[in-house]
Amino acid sequence: CCDSVIQNGANSAVGQAVIQIAHAMGLKTINVIRDRPDLQKLTDRLQSMGANYVVTEEALRKPEMKEIFKEVPRPRLALNCVGGKSTVEVLRHGGTIVTYGGMARQPITVPMSALIFKDIKIRGFWVTRWKQDNIHGDKLLKMITELCDLIRAGKLTAPACTEVPLQDYRVALEAATKPFIGTKQILIM
């Protein structure tokens, strides 16, 4: 079988991009989302993008996760944009965990057993620094070219958006603060 990736915040814009890019690369994805009223609708949408497994944060703690790992290898990469308890559960399943956000605004508490017995590695990633460090090499251009190729091939699309006229910015702000809204609010001038 092929490698796999696990991520929390899978319905975020970055999470959706990860699903599509991993799918194009032949990687399996395990995608963690918060439980919500429209869970099946969101699961179906992520799977239509190429998600192999969509599980709730609560399901990560259950024995059923073992069934997934009978079908795919344990992830060598875990992506974290949430922090807090969600990350602790994700890191139990991933080899190297890369944190690029902290939506929960809670620290990551790492069990010693994960570091010692599972050889978990923890990294941070800030795309601005990565771009600064790679501005003069060919890595940045190569990445942009590869992403553009995926977009042209129809394998990478933008997340769902709601266009709102600038004069109705209050409507967009109100929608953006609601939980489980599902779309990005784009102000149109």
- The count of strands amounts to 8
Percent of residues in helices:
25-40%
Distance, first to last CA? 48 Å
Helix/strand class = alpha/beta
Number of helices: 8
Strand content: 15-25%
Spatial sequence of strands, sheet with the most strands: 3-2-1-4-5-6
CATH architecture field of the largest domain:
3-Layer(aba) Sandwich
CATH class of the largest domain: Alpha Beta
CATH fold name of the largest domain? Rossmann fold
Total number of domains? 2
Strand/helix succession: EHEHEHEHEHEHHEHE
Question: How would you describe the shape?
Answer: globular
Using only C-alpha atoms, the radius of gyration works out to 18 Å
Main location: mitochondrion
Organism: Callorhinchus milii
GO biological process, one term: fatty acid metabolic process
Protein name: Mitochondrial trans-2-enoyl-CoA reductase
